[in-house]
Amino acid sequence: MGKSVTQKILEAHLVEGTFEPGKEVALKIDQTLTQDATGTMAYLQFEAMGQPKVKTELSVSYIDHNTIQVGFENADDHQYLQSIAAKYGIYLSRAGNGICHQVHLERFGKPGKTLLGSDSHTPTGGGLGMIAIGAGGLDVAVAMGGEPFYLTCPKVIKLALKGKLSPWVSAKDVILKVLEIFGTKGNVGCVFEYAGEGVKTLSVPERATITNMGAECGVTTSVFPSDEVTKQFLAAQSRENDWLELEADKDAQYDSVVEI
């Protein structure tokens, strides 16, 4: 039996459990991200664990939310985040570098990897072929300490994209159509996996636009395959060595299929 992109990535990162929707599993987390609105508490919790360094492949602390400097509070948080990054081997993205999920997509995201972030739009990384999940600060702190992330193994819904975008139609319209179909409730414990001929007509930024707003549907995450379009995007970022081809098998099994 063939496997979906979701199943391939999750099975490669399983620490406990098996790929059975509805069952609890534990995943190894490769990368984490935080932003300054949630990061301060996450790093206080990480410090309490007593670890000398983060144990992920890569962790990034972004300053992109509370950038107004009219009082001491934000500045104090930012100084703390800077010191934490230097002490524990965490990358620091200073204010002005860009929004966390967008910068991470461009600079650090890798197909086939797992990403856990304390930002609701962490699933943006799915546009590169990652399993990228938004979580609470404590979950991210635990992942930075080298412990797995526990979740309910998701159902996988295939969204088969047909044709190509018409003039004046954008990727935003695609995800708005998805929202119209699925709504904002009742999708917990599901992954939207995009496939079909229409996928290859979408750039990585367009794919990321779609996975970004999957959060509004309440799904665990959304993911696209990693193909030649992905390779070209990474090459443009001078990261062609990060590319990994990752597509669903032709006989992959899904819990349901919806055509758009």
Percent range for β-strand residues: 15-25%
Radius of gyration over C-alpha positions, nearest whole angstrom: 18 Å
Total helical segments:
8
Relative helix content: 25-40%
Strand tally = 12
Order of strands, widest sheet: 5-4-3-6-7
For the termini, the CA-CA separation is 25 Å
How confident overall, as mean pLDDT? Answer: 96
The CATH architecture can be given as: 2-Layer Sandwich
Kindly provide the name of the CATH class: Alpha Beta
- What is the H/E order? HEEEHEHEHEEHEEHEHEHE
CATH homologous superfamily title: Aconitase, domain 3
- Oligomeric state of shown chains: single chain
Give a quick account of the main beta sheet: strands, pairing sense, barrel closure: 5 strands, parallel
Query: What's the CATH topology label?
Result: Aconitase, domain 3
**Which of globular, elongated, flat, extended, rod-shaped describes the shape?**
globular
Structure description:
The chain has one domain (about 5-260): Aconitase, domain 3 (2-Layer Sandwich). Helices cover about 30% and strands about 20% of the residues. It has eight helices and twelve strands. It has helices spanning about 5-10, 35-45, 70-90, 100-105, 135-145, 170-180, 205-215, 230-235; strands at about 15, 25, 30-35, 60, 90-95, 115, 130-135, 150, 155-160, 190-195, 220-225, 255-260. The longest helix is centred in the N-terminal third of the chain and has 17 residues, at about 70-90. The chain is globular. The model has no long low-confidence stretch (mean pLDDT about 95).
